[in-house]
Amino acid sequence: MTKPLVALLSGAGVSTDSGIPDYRGPNGLWQRDPEAQKLVTYEFYMNDPEIRRRAWLMRHEVGTLRVRPNAAHLAVAKLERAGVPVRVITQNVDGLHQLAGLPARKVLELHGTARRFVCTGCHARGPMEDALARVEAGEPDPPCLECGGILKPATVMFGERLDPVVMGEAVAVTKACQVFVAVGTSLQVQPAADLAGVAADHGARLVVVNAEPTPYDDRADEVIREPIGTALPELLRRLGTPGNDWAANGG
To answer: Cystine design at 69: which of 75, 90, 100, 112 (Cβ 3.0–4.6 Å)?
Structure first.
């Protein structure tokens, strides 16, 4: 029996067990400190050197590059190693799916990656570690070494467009999959949230794993409110069970 193509749309809730706070939940970063949103808003970032200095300081102090994958990330990689066709469409920028062992070609990063920087002028790129080392050495707002332009993480900030190529690939995967798991995402940020509806429209079994209700719960075949660190590994274990026709019969 052909194994179903499993697409996972992963949001901030997948990485909270790794120590990365979510943004839109009841205790999310935007709720606790609305001003922090300016640090990742393109217009503010580009026009206010103080915003950039605060943003670089936050990146240095938060230590995102030091976090490690948790049980949810590892479960996805384990499913892929078991021979199940898996594609991850992630709203996260932490690179933890790849660190957990999922091949990079099977991860679509809708919002880019915080593990690299990009120059807004000449578009030079490099590892974020290099930029953060300059911050630690005393450069509060390190300019591009190639052209002197403003550096930013290679993420999609508020006010920037998603990469149309990456989004196109995400839509193609969503239309082709037999199982679509939306995990740790509020399904409120467009156009990523629309993928859940696209999956359902094309006949995929839709599963929502999230602590809070989402706008797509009423379209889901299954809604799971249990903690992601235990719920997702169990869900994916079912999918990886030999002979499991879970996509067709509902598990």
So the answer is: 100
Q: List the binding residues for Zn(2+).
A: 119, 122, 144, 147
Catalytic-labelled residue, pool 60, 73, 97, 111 = 111
- In the annotated binding site, the residues are 119, 122, 144, 147
- Is a pLDDT exceeding 90 seen at residue 152? yes
Contact (CB, 8 A) for 102 and 88? yes
The phi and psi torsions of 109 (rounded to 5 degrees) equal: -95, 95
Q: Is 202 an annotated catalytic residue?
A: no
Please give the helix or strand (H or E) that residue 111 lies within, else none.
none
- Evaluate if residue 175 carries a pLDDT over 90: yes
Looking at the structure, do residues 194 and 211 belong to the same domain, yes or no? yes
Burial (Cβ within 10 Å: 0-12, 13-18, ≥19) of residue 207: buried
Cβ neighbours of 72 (radius 10 Å):
29
Residues 16 and 132 occupy one common structural domain: no
* pLDDT exceeds 50 at position 250: no
